């Protein structure tokens, strides 16, 4: 579980070019978009593609469910485990 | 027909040549172009916006912001590049070849007007803006577009930004004047006094490949030569200094 969280954080940093941010700066439970890490809608698309390429899981862009999965590292990690 | 104009400010960036002093040393033959291209820091741009800037966009934006200065929010602009952000396009093509999904960011920012768009977003600039490409004459074609707009629209000033980087390795054997350089010019309507320039071009026979027009331009602008001629593909471009 924590390994996957770590992996997802690395994926976020790499896919979104977050040069100044390290794995330690991203909390498992903190919101990724707007309030927390401050990611935007282009990041959501980019992260969706990165997760698809890395885990072969499709995340639909604009459903209520996908908003739930994209909320934090923890929710993404749970979704990936569920789908594998 | 020759179009006259003034150059209010000239900013340029190339490998090893970043400040005005660097360029003066280069013009006197005291400093060569370096091998390694370093990138402008662009500390004024927030980190979350800056992270999406490619090396190409960083150099283009540096030249645009430095040359336009206080006018950056409302000055009309022309951006020109022969290859555009070819490194981004190449990554996209490689992704397609590997059967991967395309990165939306790479896709959105690989278009030819991406650097111009990023500049307009950052500077909050809603003035008319165009992005052009004109093969090996891209520098002169862009300058012509810029000066023509200055005259046709009776503008007091217009920003010209030219940028090209070394092409990716896979394209290198197809390109002869592969130079990395960005130039930002604050172009102003010519007054009666002071140093003005005039640009003209005419057809000629035969094909001559000139060297990098942008680099030749920098050599000319820093010199006291009276004219710069660029002969290329059945055209002669002539930039004269009127003293």
Radius of gyration of chain A: 11 Å
Q: Biggest interface between protein chains, with counts per chain?
A: A-B, 13 and 11 residues
Strand content of chain A: under 5%
CATH architectural name of chain A: Orthogonal Bundle
Low-confidence stretches of chain A: none
The largest sheet of chain B is:
8 strands, mixed
Strand order of the largest sheet of chain B: 3-2-4-5-1-6-8-7
| Structural class estimated from helices and strands of chain B | alpha+beta
How far apart, in Å, are the first and last alpha carbons of chain B? 19 Å
Could you tell me the number of beta strands of chain A?
A: 0
CATH topology description of chain B? Peroxisomal Thiolase, Chain A, domain 1
Describe the protein.
The complex is a heterodimer of chains A (about 80) and B (about 240). Chain A contains 4 helices and no strands. Chain A is globular. The two termini of chain A are about 15 Å apart. With about 80 residues, chain A is mainly α. Chain A has a single domain, classed as Non-ribosomal Peptide Synthetase Peptidyl Carrier Protein, Chain A (Orthogonal Bundle). With about 240 residues, chain B is an alpha+beta fold. Chain B has a single domain, classed as Thiolase/Chalcone synthase (Peroxisomal Thiolase, Chain A, domain 1), CATH 3.40.47.10. Chain B is about 30% helix and about 25% strand. Chain B contains 8 helices and 8 strands. Chain B has an 8-stranded mixed β-sheet. In chain B, strand 7 and strand 8 form a beta hairpin. In chain B, helix 3 crosses helix 6. Chain B is globular, with a radius of gyration of 18 Å. The model of chain B has no long low-confidence stretch (mean pLDDT about 95). The interface between A and B is medium-sized, with 13 and 11 residues.
């Amino acid at each position: 579980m924590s390994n996957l969280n770590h992996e997802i954080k690395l994926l976020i940093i790499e896919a979104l070019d977050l040069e100044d941010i390290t794995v330690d700066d991203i909390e498992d439970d903190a919101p990724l978009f707007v309030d927390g890490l401050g990611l935007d809608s282009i990041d959501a698309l980019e992260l969706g593609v990165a997760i698809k390429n890395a885990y072969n899981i499709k995340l639909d862009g604009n459903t209520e469910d996908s908003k739930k999965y994209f909320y934090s590292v923890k929710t993404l990690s749970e979704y990936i485990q569920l789908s594998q | 027909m020759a179009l006259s104009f003034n150059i209010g400010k000239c900013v340029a960036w190339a490998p090893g040549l970043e400040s005005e002093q660097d360029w003066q040393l280069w013009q006197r033959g005291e400093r060569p172009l370096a091998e390694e291209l370093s990138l402008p820091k662009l500390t004024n741009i927030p980190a979350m916006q800056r992270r999406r800037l490619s090396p190409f966009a960083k150099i283009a934006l540096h030249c645009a912001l430095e040359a336009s200065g206080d006018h950056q929010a409302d000055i009309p602009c022309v951006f020109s590049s022969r290859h555009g952000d070819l490194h981004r396009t190449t990554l996209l093509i490689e992704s397609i070849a590997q059967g991967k999904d395309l990165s939306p960011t790479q896709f959105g920012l690989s278009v030819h007007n991406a650097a111009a768009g990023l500049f307009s977003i950052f500077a909050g600039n809603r003035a008319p803006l165009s992005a052009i490409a004109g093969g090996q004459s891209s520098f002169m074609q862009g300058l012509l577009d810029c000066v023509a707009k200055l005259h046709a629209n009776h503008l007091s000033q217009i920003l010209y930004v030219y940028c090209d980087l070394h092409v990716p390795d896979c394209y290198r054997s197809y390109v002869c004047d592969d130079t990395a350089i960005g130039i930002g010019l604050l172009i102003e309507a010519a007054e009666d006094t002071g140093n003005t320039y005039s640009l003209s071009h005419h057809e000629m026979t035969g094909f001559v490949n000139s060297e990098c027009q942008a680099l030749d331009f920098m050599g000319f602008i820093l010199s006291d030569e009276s004219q710069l001629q660029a002969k290329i593909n059945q055209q002669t471009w002539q930039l004269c200094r009127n003293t």
